[in-house]
């Protein structure tokens, strides 16, 4: 049986920060940024981090497939919020994966996403099914190039044996301590070296060495490659690279620099998803990961690709966008500006870890109950059934609500309560099969508003930041499904 | 079958502090202000009181736990004293404790004191605080206005009503309460407003603007109750007695079971039906002389008119705009300005409402006194959120009415 890719899913935050807004803020100080002030970048909401991005990409990837089949979860990111508390375990529980699971946080390099993919492919060779996710939302200094060129996002791939949509043809990895930038445990932000040096010594030397090694090992001619996914270098530099490698110019996969920005450890996987969406069966796709060396993977698409049901991939994510012209929102969401949050923000957000553990089926998994006596679905689960005609005690079986669509019963937009993105939207939602809950909302577009009766879907988000202790807690929120949003 | 509380207990005396931003006073000072008035009104000494109940909701903001603060502030003579808390119905709960003790024959004379000192938070509105270790993991980030504002979205959807029409009716609720509050020297907010001010005010929680929200105040109110016989033996005439005291508490059904539409208070309907039965009232619309309801927000008052079965469902806004609930209307509502203008020191609020009924029934309400000899008055409290709350309905009236 072939080993390779079984499916994919992507997630990009819906806000697109307009780069001209960044340029307008900083052009006086750093005129070189003005030239970068075109297009847009994805911008995570205040309640998103690489874990929530991972969950949404993972959900998109696993939609319609049996989650219990996943044997391993491999997440590559350089912006894991927790250094010691495995982020992938949290993500696995939010995704409803089996607890009989190998989990890996792969960090420390922009190539963490492709390294995660390679590790999962190795597991697949021994019959294991792996979910690979790349996710990043990197904080950047104001007026830095990274602020302009980075984006926030996540990409997920299901890897295993069987009816694969793309077979792994071969791979090659080269490890080189080439420090184009770095970030340490003590530093908040990337420290970046000169772009021209990175281009000449990295893109034009380390990458060709790695690519050529793989081509040599597999005996494949560069001209046969239909899709070349290179997550670093401008499109102009990539054209020079293609010439050097003997690639067809049209093989260069869109770097998403104009409409998304570089999503770090997710970016190679995101571009691979873009290639899979564009590819026909029987085409070769090459994917690169770059950072302290280079991962190169070569896939060949199969006939199964044409049969793959429509997935939430790159196309849908790029189409689902809201323009944001307020650069200060970006600063506020990323804690890059000292703001007066007011006395209402001072509420202590300490989390009792024992209580959080006891209730994590609800808070992480959004699992409620279904009464085994009367069939009433309810969330949260309670010792006594809420159906007044039933009243069964201890009769509820775990019942997942995270993927159920709800309708909106009542709502408000609240300017009094503290929110980092006022007004705070919340209200009561109701599930068609039973169950209702009062809950915070996410991704409400002010211009489109809310209406009683509209459909809502659940999204995994940060609930509270406990700045005093550096902790953050997660929960689910309801997001409106606007017509044509593709979500 | 229990026969209920009707005419078993009389109000011997009442007091109420000035409500407002009482920068000058601690909670203890406010309690003493209300208590000394009540004691003088009752014509007794502290030594005559057999038991006391203290109501306060946000004790962390001021007095702290237990009933020790009331016993100490009022120098009560080592009698049983109990602190009660039941959201915004706390004041009525203290009254219920005192009234039931007298009705049971356990006490001759009992005291209910409610107090809240809310203006030491440093900001407007209710304190934003933690809601419990487990609740904090999943409860939404609600404020009080945001919670009650949702009534409007569900109400307009259910009754296919134009949002602007509802907003205008809600606006009249507030204009009316400001008109009434103007005549009340103890009221927190004494300022005439008009409908345009309400409609154009800053939005707090859609669709509630600034003037759709009640004041958050410091204040205290107090009641001394006894049996009608003892009241008469102390020389009291034209007694005001308790006709009904009912409470209904949500059990999670509105919040979790899919049969409540979010546009009304299930608890208020239950409590009102029980209270009318207890008081022997068949037609509240024609029998009630006046009402004080929990107008924490204008929309709450609007839907409560229906939940109390005074306006028909879906018709409250028409009655409101017709002036039915104005001071000169058929069933005047919030004669003292209500929570909106008298203010809302949570623990005191239920007692403050009964205080107004008591004054009106005795013809002692001064400039705002009803001229048509009121006979029965209803008070209503609501604590919590539309989806999970405590609702109380109290009816007081002339003895024998």
Itemize the secondary structure elements and their pairings.
The complex is a heterodimer of chains A (487) and B (401).
Chain A: E1 3-11, E2 15-18, H1 19-26, E3 40-43, H2 50-62, E4 72-76, H3 87-94, E5 102-106, H4 112-124, E6 130-136, H5 145-149, E7 153-161, E8 166-175, E9 181-182, E10 191-192, H6 195-218, E11 225-229, H7 235-245, H8 267-278, E12 284-290, E13 293-301, H9 304-307, H10 314-319, E14 322-324, H11 327-333, H12 353-358, H13 360-363, E15 367-371, E16 377-378, E17 396-400, E18 406-414, E19 424-431, E20 436-440, E21 455-466, E22 471-480
Parallel strand pairs in A: 2-14, 4-5, 4-6, 11-12
Antiparallel strand pairs in A: 1-7, 1-8, 2-3, 6-7, 8-13, 9-10, 12-13, 15-16, 15-17, 18-19, 18-21, 19-20, 21-22
Helix pairs in contact in A: 2-3, 6-7
Chain B: E1 10-16, H1 27-42, E2 51-55, H2 68-73, E3 81-84, H3 90-103, E4 109-116, H4 135-138, H5 144-158, H6 163-181, H7 195-200, E5 203-205, E6 208-209, E7 219-226, H8 228-233, E8 240-249, H9 253-256, H10 266-279, H11 284-287, E9 290-292, H12 298-307, H13 316-321, H14 338-341, H15 346-361, E10 376-385, E11 388-398
């Amino acid at each position: 049986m072939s080993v390779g890719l079984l499916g994919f899913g992507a997630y990009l935050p819906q806000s697109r920060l307009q780069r001209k807004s960044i340029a307008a803020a900083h052009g006086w100080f750093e005129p070189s940024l003005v030239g970068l002030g075109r297009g847009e970048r994805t911008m995570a909401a205040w309640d998103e981090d690489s874990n929530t991005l991972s969950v949404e990409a993972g959900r998109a990837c696993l939609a319609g497939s049996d989650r219990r089949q996943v044997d391993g979860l491999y997440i590559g990111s350089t912006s894991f919020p927790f250094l010691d508390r495995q982020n992938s375990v949290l993500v696995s529980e939010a995704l409803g994966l089996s607890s009989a699971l190998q989990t890996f946080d792969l960090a420390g390099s922009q190539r963490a996403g492709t390294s995660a993919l390679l590790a999962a492919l190795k597991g697949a060779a021994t019959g294991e099914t792996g979910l690979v996710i790349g996710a990043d939302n990197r904080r950047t200094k104001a007026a830095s190039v990274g602020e302009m060129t980075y984006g926030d996002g996540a990409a997920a791939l299901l890897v295993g044996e069987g009816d694969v949509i793309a077979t792994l043809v071969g791979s090659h990895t080269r490890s080189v301590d080439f420090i184009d930038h770095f970030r340490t445990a003590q530093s908040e932000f990337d420290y970046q070296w000169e772009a021209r040096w990175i281009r000449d010594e990295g893109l034009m030397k380390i990458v060709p060495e790695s690519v050529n090694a793989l081509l040599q090992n597999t005996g494949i001619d560069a001209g046969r490659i239909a899709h070349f996914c290179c997550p670093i270098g401008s499109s102009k530099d990539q054209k020079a690279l293609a010439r050097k490698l003997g690639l067809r110019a049209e093989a260069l996969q869109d770097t998403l620099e104009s409409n998304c920005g570089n999503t770090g450890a997710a970016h190679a996987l995101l571009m691979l998803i873009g290639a899979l969406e564009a590819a026909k069966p029987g085409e070769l796709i090459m994917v690169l990961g770059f950072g302290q060396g280079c991962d190169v993977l070569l896939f060949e698409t199969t006939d199964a690709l044409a049969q793959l049901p429509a997935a939430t991939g790159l196309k849908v994510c790029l189409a689902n966008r809201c323009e944001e012209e307020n650069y200060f929102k970006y600063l506020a969401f990323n804690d890059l500006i000292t703001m007066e949050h007011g006395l209402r923000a001072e509420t202590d957000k300490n989390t009792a870890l024992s209580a959080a553990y006891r209730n994590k089926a609800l808070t992480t998994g959004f699992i409620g109950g279904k009464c085994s006596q009367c069939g009433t679905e309810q969330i949260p689960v309670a010792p006594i059934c809420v159906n007044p005609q039933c009243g069964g005690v201890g009769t509820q079986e775990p019942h997942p609500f995270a993927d159920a669509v709800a309708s909106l019963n009542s709502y408000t937009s609240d300017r009094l309560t503290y929110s980092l993105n006022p007004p705070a939207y919340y209200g009561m939602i109701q599930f068609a099969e039973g169950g209702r809950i009062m809950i915070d909302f996410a991704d409400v577009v002010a211009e489109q508003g809310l209406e009683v009766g509209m459909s809502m879907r659940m999204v995994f988000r940060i609930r509270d930041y406990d700045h005093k202790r550096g902790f953050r807690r997660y929960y689910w929120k309801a997001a409106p499904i606007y017509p044509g949003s593709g979500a | 079958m229990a026969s209920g509380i009707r005419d078993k207990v009389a109000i011997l005396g009442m007091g109420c502090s000035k409500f407002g931003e009482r920068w000058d006073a601690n909670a203890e000072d406010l309690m003493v202000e209300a208590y000394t008035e009540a004691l003088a009104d009752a014509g007794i000494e502290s030594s005559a009181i057999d038991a006391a109940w203290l109501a306060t909701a946000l004790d962390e903001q001021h007095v702290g736990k237990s009933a020790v603060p009331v016993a100490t502030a009022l120098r009560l003579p080592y009698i049983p004293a109990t602190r009660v808390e039941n959201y915004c119905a706390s004041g009525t709960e203290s009254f219920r404790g005192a009234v039931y003790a007298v009705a049971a024959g356990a006490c001759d004379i009992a005291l209910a004191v409610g107090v809240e000192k809310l203006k030491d938070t440093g900001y407007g509105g209710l304190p934003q605080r933690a809601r419990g270790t487990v609740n904090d993991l999943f409860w939404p980030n609600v404020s009080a206005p945001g919670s009650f504002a949702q009534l409007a979205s569900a109400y307009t959807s259910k009754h296919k009503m134009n949002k602007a029409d509802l907003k205008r009716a809600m606006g009249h609720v507030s204009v009316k309460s400001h008109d009434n509050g103007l005549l009340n020297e103890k009221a927190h907010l004494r300022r005439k407003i008009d409908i345009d001010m309400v409609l154009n005010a800053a939005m707090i929680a859609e669709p509630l603007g600034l003037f759709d929200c009640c004041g958050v105040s410091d204040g205290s109110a107090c009641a001394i109750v006894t049996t009608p016989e003892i009241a008469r033996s102390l020389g009291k005439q034209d007694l005001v007695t308790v006709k009904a005291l009912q409470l209904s508490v949500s059990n999670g059904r509105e919040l979790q079971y899919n049969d409540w539409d979010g546009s009304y208070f299930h608890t208020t309907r239950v409590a009102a039906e029980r209270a009318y039965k207890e008081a022997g009232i068949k037609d509240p619309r024609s029998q009630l002389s006046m009402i004080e309801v929990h107008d924490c927000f204008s929309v709450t008052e609007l839907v409560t008119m229906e939940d109390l079965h005074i306006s028909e469902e879906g018709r409250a806004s028409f009655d409101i705009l017709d002036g039915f609930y104005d001071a000169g209307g058929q069933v005047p509502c919030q004669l003292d300005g209500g929570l909106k203008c008298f203010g809302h020191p949570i623990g005191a609020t239920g007692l403050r409402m009964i205080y107004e009924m008591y004054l009106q029934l005795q013809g002692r309400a001064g400039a705002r006194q009803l001229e048509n000899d009121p006979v029965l008055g209803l008070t209503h409290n609501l604590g919590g959120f539309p989806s999970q709350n405590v609702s109380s309905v109290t009816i007081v009236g002339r003895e024998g009415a």
